[in-house]
Amino acid sequence: MSSFFNSVEKLKGRENYDSWKVAMRAALRIEKLWKDVIELKDAGVKVDPEKDEEALSRITLCIEKVNYSHIQNASSAKAAWDSLAAAYEDSGLSRRVALLRTLVTSRYENYSSAEQYCDEVLTTAQKLNDLKFVVSDEWVGTLLLAGLPDEYRPMIMGLENSGTKITGDIVKVKILQDVKPSQNNDSALVAKNRRKFLRCHTCNKVGHFSKDCHSRASGAESKQKDCKKPNYRSNKNNGSQKKYNDSVQKNNDKSEKQAWLAGSFKKEGSWYLDSGASSHISCTSVNLVNMQPADSQTVSTADQTDMVVKCKGRIDLNVIDPSRKVREVQVNDVLFIPEAAANLLSVSKIASHGCTVTFSSKGGKVFDKNGVLIATASVEEGLYRLHTVPSTPQRSFLVTKDEALWHRRLGHLNNKGIGVLKNNSHGIDTEYQMSSVCEVCLRGKHSRKPFRASGKRASNILDLVHSDLVGPMEKQSFGGNRYILTLIDDHSRKVFVYLLKEKSEVPKHIEEFILINGRYS
Fold first, then answer.
1. Domains of the chain
2. What pTM value is reported for the model?
3. In what helix (H) or strand (E) does residue 432 lie, and over which residues does it extend?
């Protein structure tokens, strides 16, 4: 088989038929089989049997086994090509409506990149053109511009004033040239790793402590060598040496304090006001509620380190106002980052809700929209710590040894299961054996008696409708459906069949059935 056909992805079904058709047509043209076989067959001209068989073999080997049923009776390459087109190239009204809806509703923010957005719009327009639904190139460019966010408004105004004819390709080039930077990465001031900004007080270099300085070690060794020689120094020199040792010791103490701030600065219970953070950050998820996936995946710190965002949620803080009263404040959109050094409250986020934050040498203050002071912060180690009451996480403990109660608490777990749970967990120290029979378990395991057969029929149409839902099917239909909904009128025995992609579509189709057929009842 030619290498060109090896590069063609095999036809799986409707999901890749459009791309397969383009690649397969190009491969047949390279082998001089498209013009001499497919196109001549369309014109009614007799084709070379050997080339026809070769083209048919090429098409057969470039499809998956599941599609053999569509071409097994095809006697020519043209018949096989048309059979696959009839199976997967849906040109009906529903197909055109679905593609047109996709084309009109495409929005830039729904895609991960500008390239993906432009390719989706251009590909959908080409599919409509293949179905004889002409979408002009000017319309394609206009729809590309219509799906852009407000950040691209200057670019649209520039195109309008330039007098350039709007086409899909021109707009695509402009969009790719004017890609806006992503706003998904938030930035934070406090980082867990601050070692890069530490300065040695011996050699005045960045990146290590004075106690680990190599210059200081080499200097000490030279001093020890000098001390081995007979040498007599005056008390004045000894005093200078003492001052030097005191200075080095003082610098070492200061360096150790800075190292503690850099490496051990981990206070999960405290909250700090941070003017450099663009989002609220929590280093623990103990008090986080309503957790959901975060919009941003990483957060960039001051030392250009990226920290992973696990999720986001809401935290209820108990702040202490100036009158020493405890007030509960809800903080929304808090990012949970286990690697964060501390819990941070973003000043920009607080200000975006109409509140005001002020800082001074004595501390910080937070005012609400009406100018009422709601929270205060004190300066600790160069940071503004918010005055809060530590919230205690809720805990549960074993209160009763009632085996029936624990049987219900554990979802009606049997005795053997409770024994396994006792051996693999903490808090259950007593052997529990059900002394009585659980009536709920008995009822749940009983099968219900079948309904009695009715010997009467409904007197009018749509007085009684029987419904049934079948699925999910192991293999989906050409349209991607996996469920079958049947509605049978008891009086006329007329059957209405609906094909569904999801089980959740049942109420919608029943409402549609009632609206359409309700006028006949």
1. 4-88 (no CATH), 93-177 (no CATH), 271-386 (2.40.70), 403-445 (no CATH), 465-518 (3.30.420.10)
2. 0.31
3. none
